[in-house]
Specification:
Blueprint: E1 6-10, H1 21-35, E2 39-44, H2 54-61, H3 72-78, E3 84-88, E4 118-121, H4 125-136, E5 140-144, E6 152-155, E7 161-163, E8 167-171, H5 176-179, H6 188-201, E9 204-207, H7 210-220, E10 227-229, H8 243-254, E11 262-265, H9 274-284, E12 290-293, H10 300-303, E13 320-324, H11 328-337, E14 340-343, H12 352-359, E15 364-367, H13 372-376, E16 381-383, H14 388-400, H15 402-416, H16 421-434
Parallel strand pairs: 1-2, 1-6, 2-4, 3-5, 5-7, 6-8, 8-9, 9-10, 11-12, 11-14, 12-13, 14-15, 15-16
Antiparallel strand pairs: 3-4
Helix pairs in contact: 1-16, 3-4, 8-11, 9-14, 12-15
Length: 444
């Protein structure tokens, strides 16, 4: 399409091997932009130089030997130039983009690359941006080598970066490092300094709930008209097996039955409130097993302290099991067949697992604070996440009350429609239009 605008996003979240919420957002945005008629470019920060011929650059970009961490002195040396440069990575087909492993992988692969029209890489740019901001207290300038900049650069995460010669907008998903500083390992002074720098220089700030929007307005002093909530897109399950195969995998791989277990889906860290949730589950008297799916984050050991068997993955009686980080297909199966998803997080900017469960008709127990009541509406059971007794009573109710579960199974998918890809596309197109960029394929 000759009138298709060139829009770039960053590949930071896309490159995370075990990416969850922000990676899902970035993939959703990439899919939306392509479906809306944009010429999509993605700027990655692989620690790879732009030297060499086209074939060499393409192969080196996907090389599993490439190390993701660089010594501090290397990064300091790398930010001394006035501009950092992004170099085009050829998409000649030397590396087949459609081939990737079906299992979990520990390195960057073609799985980390959505369909794109332009692929760019700036050597270690995200790490360099952090170091540059610590030293200079300003955004790191990035230029596209040998090509004009796009009409819009949409950074999907909070980076101390700015692409020269174009509009720069940034998605800030939440203000959790400020609201719950004890629960995250972010360097708080750098987080706040970067947020303030973006608030002062960005053409616009994007966020994913009205609650997060009000947080950013109040904490950063942003004018209300410079922050837009687009929510997150929740796409249908991409790996859906037919019901017979799905149940067969559930039973053979995990020894679980349809609607026969409770599920927790998230990285295990203090903000997710798992320790209190497990205490409530044990107090509820419910006999059905409790399954935990997610990688371990900071202070995970304390959250999992009741799991004393099998190297800390199982409770003494075997009812609680931590399965770790799983392939997306297995997550979808476990979500679809759970009796309920339990997600009483202490603070969320959006709360993607709750909507993913509701989308497939699985009842949800979640918190009555932060963005969660706004997102789930009346289609989930909400309680005070700090009240162990209330959590225990809610679990027992969801286990025994068939009528309640039946209502939530019906209302959940209806509520999830509010976050459909089509509605996200319309919200995004409306925002871009205000910035002077028209998505030709977007529906109003």
């Amino acid at each position: 399409m000759t009138d298709a605008p060139r829009i770039w996003i960053d590949g930071f979240a896309l490159s995370l091997v075990n990416g969850t919420g922000i990676a899902t957002y970035a993939k959703g945005l990439a899919t939306t932009l392509q479906a809306s008629g944009a010429r999509l470019g993605v700027v990655y920060g692989r620690p790879v130089s732009g030297k060499g011929d086209a074939m060499e650059r393409e192969v080196r970009f996907f090389d599993a030997r490439t190390q993701l961490r660089r010594p501090l002195f290397t990064r300091i040396k790398g930010v001394l130039a006035e501009f950092q440069r992004a170099h085009r990575v050829p998409l000649s087909g030397v590396v087949p983009a459609g081939i990737s492993s079906a299992g979990l992988y520990s390195h960057f692969t073609t799985s980390n690359l959505p369909p794109v029209d332009e692929l760019w890489n700036a050597n270690d740019i995200f790490g360099r941006a952090v170091v540059n901001f610590r030293i200079r207290r300003r955004l790191l300038a990035l230029k596209a080598a040998g090509a004009p900049p796009p009409e819009l650069m949409h950074w999907t995460h909070m980076h101390a970066l700015r692409l020269s010669g174009t509009r720069n907008i940034y998605t800030i998903h939440d203000a959790i490092p400020m609201r719950l500083p004890w629960a995250t390992l972010d360097h708080k002074a750098s987080w706040l300094g970067t947020a303030r720098a973006l608030a002062a220089s960005a053409e616009h700030i994007v966020t994913v709930s009205e609650h997060a929007r009000q947080d950013l307005i109040s904490l950063l002093g942003l004018p209300a008209d410079r922050v837009t909530n687009t929510y997150e897109p929740v796409f249908p399950q991409a790996h859906g097996l037919d019901p017979r195969m799905s149940l067969a995998r559930l039973r053979s791989t995990y020894q679980l039955e349809d609607r026969g277990y409770f599920l927790f889906l998230s990285a295990v860290d203090p903000r997710k409130n798992l320790a209190r949730l497990l205490e409530a589950y044990l107090a509820s008297g419910v006999e059905r097993p409790f399954i935990i799916v997610g990688s371990t984050g900071s202070n995970a050991r304390q959250e999992l302290r009741l799991l004393t068997e099998a190297n800390g993955t199982r409770s003494a009686d075997g009812r609680i099991r931590h399965l770790g980080y799983l392939p997306r297909q297995d997550v979808d199966i476990l979500l679809r067949h759970a009796r309920a998803l339990c997600f009483p997080s202490l603070y969320e900017g959006f709360g993607l697992p709750a909507i993913e469960a509701m989308q497939v008709g699985t009842p949800v127990l979640t918190s009555n604070n932060s963005a969660l009541p706004e997102v789930v509406g009346d289609a989930a059971l909400t309680v005070d996440p700090t009240d162990t007794r209330a959590l225990a009573e809610a679990i027992a109710t969801l286990d025994a009350d068939d009528a309640l579960r039946g209502r939530l199974e019906v209302e959940g998918p209806k509520r999830a429609e509010y976050f459909s890809p089509e509605r996200f596309a319309a919200r995004t197109a409306a925002l871009y239009a205000r910035l002077g960029v028209t998505l030709p394929g977007a529906r109003a």
